[in-house]
Design goal:
This protein has about 575 residues and is an alpha+beta fold. The chain has five domains: about 90 residues, Alpha-Beta Complex (DNA Primase, Chain A); about 130 residues, DNA primase, catalytic core, N-terminal domain (DNA primase DNAg catalytic core, N-terminal domain), CATH 3.90.980; about 120 residues, Dna Topoisomerase Vi A Subunit, Chain: A, domain 2, CATH 3.40.1360.10; about 50 residues, no CATH class; about 140 residues. The chain has a five-stranded antiparallel sheet with strand order 1-2-3-4-5. A hairpin with a 5-residue loop joins strand 4 and strand 5. Helix 1 packs across helix 24, helix 12 runs parallel beside helix 15 and helix 21 packs parallel to helix 23. It is globular.
Amino acid sequence: MQAISEEKIQEIRNSADIVSIISDYIPLKPQGKNYFGVCPFHDDHRPSMSVSKDRQLFKCFVCNKGGNVFTFVKDYENISYIEAVIKVANKVGIPISYTPVKGNDEKYKLEYEIMDFTTSIYQNNLNSKEGIKAKEYLEKRNITSSIIKEFKIGYALNDSNYLANVLKKKGYLDSKLDELGLINKDGINTYDRFQNRIMIPITNLDGKVVGFTGRIFNGEDSAKYINTKETSIYKKGKIIFNYYNALPYIRESKSAILVEGNMDAIRMYSAGVKNVLALMGTTLTKDQIEILKKLRVPITLMLDNDNAGEIATNNIGDELIKNNILVKVVRLKRAKDPDEYIVSFGIDAFKDTLNNSLSYLDYKIDYLKNNKNLGNTIELVSYIKDVIKLLDNEDNLTKEVILKKLSTEYNLDYEMLKKEVTFKEEVKKEPVKVVKKNKYEKCVNNILYYLMSDSKYIKIFNKKLGFLKNTDERNLVTEIEYYIDNYGKINLADFMSYAEGNDKIKDLVHNIVNYIAFDDLQDEIFLDYIEALNNMLMKENIKDIKEKIVNSNDINEQIENINKQIDLKKKIINEKKDV
């Protein structure tokens, strides 16, 4: 069962207006008594997702995805159900006490404790007499005290053993400090890994400090940056710098900017461009791509204005496109990186540059010109062929526009260019197909939908039918009755939350929710489903009895089964008369 009580989950759900919560993720517009928006769970171009304020449920009429507020947050953010409950609780301001099942947070409790304490030491150092020059350097770069506090920026003293001595006095072992990359060991001797550097904490996706970047500020060391080595809690390829801080602003702006360095990210954040993330290098791992995919927003690449940044833009952009992420590109001019650009030209010029980003296709077409002499016929032909190859996966309209541009720019015959490109036959996108249900499944799903939606229907069910042949279906009815006995009433939004903690019924409830159209409840329709299912079950019994009659050699057994068959047929006729 869930570690959060069912009563607490109901309190959170009842306090969370589904329209308000979903509006944080996608735009919704009122239409009749419901709200509609573009469904984020399939390639939707028209608002096909309905959100009911009255019933506190959402439903897409194309891909059939449906559920309550927790289901939406869980599936949109690709997080666990419990994480979704906690997120919604935070959004509506309900304090929640939750002790997770022992996992990484519990396993690495000591490691996180040491990193937090180390962060505090570095912060104190920055505000000490020894940290004045480091603080002045930050202030000159317009890194304000509020930004210093938000990013927990600190200073490692110009002392080879200061941090180690403080941490050892606290009771932490050399072996653990070495493992976390805070000290280096040289035989029996130890010394601080970071000395005389501005310290920028690196946090994981949950905002916990897992490592540091140490940056020089007085030019005395040849290595501009020193980073924490890979540790049990710091896996470079699983982290994107500033993710935790930037996430609310990415959601708000529905876009993210990806830069190379953490100082670039801090500089942009301090200048008000807060939807910024930074790579932990110039490559992108599969884990980092998955993190970006979960954001479900376009990514603008703004990497350094050098050869390495150009190559990285090209390689990273290709990978993001392969993973169906919309990519834009900004290539800065007259400055190496965003930090330098903002210092040299100001934030307004920077924002103008950002607003004039290129589509990734336009960037690639321009990138292919690199190292080519387009005045040379052979190299021009090579370039044109490379561009045409780029168009393979584009739609017909895009192909047409690019070919006409090439034709005009290089004085080439459009029809000749067109012959080099394969235009796809436009095929209408079919709606997402749902597995077809047989008549029995349709009836049962609708009956169970009614039972989960209003307690009055369980009485009618028990009186008129009272039996379902499938074990999972019978288990669900039992759980519905148990729920009503305990809570006095039932509605689908609350029962879905209850089902999440019950492995016996969870999958069936999700299956029903994704199948049902969430129509208004009508007693007459419910009775129609009951009658139809009753008739199906009795006809199945008649068929079974008929087989027994044919296969039996005992005359008395045959007569007994014939009488049963007659009784069932009479019952079907009487059921129809009653209705």
